[in-house]
Design brief:
With 279 residues, the chain is of the alpha+beta class. It has 2 domains: 2-50, no CATH class; 66-269, no CATH class. The protein has helices at residues 2-11, 16-30, 46-50, 96-100, 146-151, 155-158; strands spanning 66-68, 73-80, 85-89, 92-95, 109-115, 122-124, 129-137, 161-168, 173-179, 187-189, 202-212, 217-221, 225-231, 234-236, 243-244, 249-253. The strands form 4 sheets. An 8-stranded antiparallel beta sheet has the order 11-7-8-9-13-5-2-15, with no helix packed on it. Strands 1-16-14 form a 3-stranded antiparallel beta sheet, with no helix packed on it. Strands 6-12-10 form a 3-stranded antiparallel beta sheet, with no helix packed on it. The chain is globular.
Length: 279
């Protein structure tokens, strides 16, 4: 109910003078930088401010061996999936098969990107991809902030989400999952807007697959939320807690880099790393 009320408030267009005050208050409270975006007066409602687009595309590495950050965010957790488990945050695990509604083979690496209310809320293709399958999974809208993830189990598998099953240029399966959250009842997917408007879970296969070039906009969130990548043979140069920005090079393909430090965070090798596994 709270998320629905907030969404309606964000979509409502107040008198221009009042709307400018609301927008300015939001920008001040969350310390939002608008250097790369339109002026504050150009946003007719809060939703337009939340989903603001870049005035000019950021430069990024277009080499196919390099993977870029799909969004402005903070790395909440990362590591190697183990026996069908991944982490939403240290000490709080979830079943990957429940998350994507499919049993994945071993060897997938997960990275959780947390978008705060202050961040740019659009997300992009981190590399050249072919989208083969989309599943919209209806669910709850629990908060995905750090405090909530530490407190609650299985947040990612309970929340509303969109799962994109893709294939990269190396023929490997590549998953990008957009997870809804408190006040984020709407997840926009540009190439399938009708699917995520349904009240019930839906899925669609694309034949032929939808081709996305690195940097192409995939969609947006109403407010902040989470993007999860599940990948194979990509070696990440990231640290938990690090802030990253869309366009930033964050990984290299294994065929390009043969010698690299272990992907697995040191803590993930501890015996207690997956201590909260569900039965």
């Amino acid at each position: 109910m709270l998320s629905l009320c907030f969404e309606r408030f964000a979509r409502y267009r107040f008198h221009p003078r009042l709307q400018r005050w609301i927008n300015a208050a939001y920008v001040k409270i969350f310390d939002i930088k608008l250097d790369e975006f339109d002026t504050l007066a150009s946003f007719p409602n809060l939703n337009a401010l939340f989903t603001r687009s870049l005035v000019k595309m950021r430069p990024f590495d277009k080499a196919k061996f390099h993977l870029i950050a799909p969004c402005d965010s903070r790395i909440m957790e990362m590591g190697l999936c183990q026996e069908d488990y991944a982490m939403q945050i240290k000490g709080k695990s979830y079943r990957v098969s429940d998350f994507v509604r499919k049993k994945l083979e071993e060897g997938y690496y997960f990275v959780n990107f947390y978008l705060s209310p202050r961040d740019y809320h659009r997300f992009h293709a981190p590399l050249n991809l072919k989208v083969k399958y989309l599943e919209f999974i209806q669910g709850k809208l629990l908060s995905v902030c750090e405090k909530s993830l530490l407190k609650h189990n299985e947040v990612f598998t309970q929340n509303k989400r969109v799962v994109l099953e893709c294939e990269d240029e190396f023929g490997e399966s590549f998953y990008l999952i957009a997870v809804g959250a408190l006040n984020v009842g709407k997840i926009q997917i540009n190439f399938a807007p009708e699917v995520v408007e349904f009240k019930e879970s839906q899925s669609v296969s694309f034949e032929p697959p939808i081709s996305l070039q690195k940097g192409d906009e995939i969609g947006s969130f109403l407010m902040g939320s989470t993007i999860v990548l599940l990948t194979k043979n990509w070696h990440y140069d990231l640290k938990i807690g690090e802030e990253v920005y869309f366009g930033q090079c964050i990984a290299a393909h294994s065929s390009k880099t043969q010698t690299i430090e272990s992907q697995i965070p040191k803590d993930s090798q501890d015996s207690n790393y997956f201590e909260d596994k569900s039965s």
